[in-house]
């Protein structure tokens, strides 16, 4: 049902929930918000803390893949791919802990995000 102040406008032009005219980019904004929520839900299955999921979700997918392939294994003493990973935030930085893909030993990667400010939307 259209808002009282917008009754003269067509129903299609008015967002009934916010009582404002729809803007050309509204669909894109809603899609981006939905994708962000899906990314958060994918990461909030116990493997990421809430703040870590927000930081990890802000990183582009290609960069995420590079980060996961660039972790350090103390047993192999080389850069390895990390599997079965989980994320936490320590001192403002994203800490990705997991398992080395080669030997199965613990591997880790620190993503320095302490300079990035998180804003609640």
The unreliable regions are: 6-12
Characterize the main sheet: 5 strands, antiparallel
Work out the oligomeric state of the chains in this entry: single chain
Specify the overall morphology: elongated
Q: Structural class of the helices, strands and pairings?
A: alpha+beta
Rounded mean pLDDT is 75
Q: How widely separated are the two ends?
A: 27 Å
Number of separate domains: 2
Secondary structure topology:
Layout: E1 14-15, E2 20-21, H1 26-43, H2 50-57, H3 61-68, E3 71-73, E4 78-80, E5 82-90, E6 93-100, E7 106-111
Helix pairs in contact: 1-2
Task: Describe the protein in words.
This protein is α+β, with helices and mostly antiparallel strands and 121 residues long. It has 2 domains: 1-43, no CATH class; 46-121, no CATH class. It is built from 3 helices and 7 strands; from the N terminus they run E-E-H-H-H-E-E-E-E-E. It has helices spanning 26-43, 50-57, 61-68, and strands spanning 14-15, 20-21, 71-73, 78-80, 82-90, 93-100, 106-111. The strands form 2 sheets. The protein has a 5-stranded antiparallel beta sheet with strand order 4-3-7-6-5, with helices on one face. The longest helix is centred in the N-terminal third of the chain and has 18 residues, at 26-43. It is elongated. The relative contact order is 0.12.
């Amino acid at each position: 049902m259209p808002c009282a102040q917008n009754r003269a406008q067509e129903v299609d032009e008015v967002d009934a929930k916010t009582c404002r005219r729809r803007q050309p980019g509204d669909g894109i904004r809603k899609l981006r918000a939905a994708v962000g929520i899906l990314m958060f839900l994918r990461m909030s299955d116990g493997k990421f803390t809430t703040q870590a999921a927000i930081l990890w979700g802000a990183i582009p997918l290609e960069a995420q893949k590079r980060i996961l392939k660039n972790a350090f294994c103390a047993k192999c003493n080389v850069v390895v791919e990390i599997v079965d990973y989980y994320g936490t935030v320590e001192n403002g930085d994203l800490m990705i802990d997991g398992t080395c893909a080669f030997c199965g030993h613990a591997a880790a990667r620190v993503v320095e995000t302490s300079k990035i400010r998180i804003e609640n939307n």
